[in-house]
Amino acid sequence: MPLDPNIQQFVADNPQGVLTTYRRNGKAQMSIVTVRPHRDAIGISITETRAKFHNLARNPACSLLISTVDWWSGFIVVDGNAELIHSGNTESETLRLARREIYSATTRRRSTDWDEYDKLVDDDKRVAVILRPDHVYGTALDPDWPGARISGR
Question: Which of 50, 77, 94, 128 is most buried by a 10 A CB count?
Answer without folding.
Answer: 128
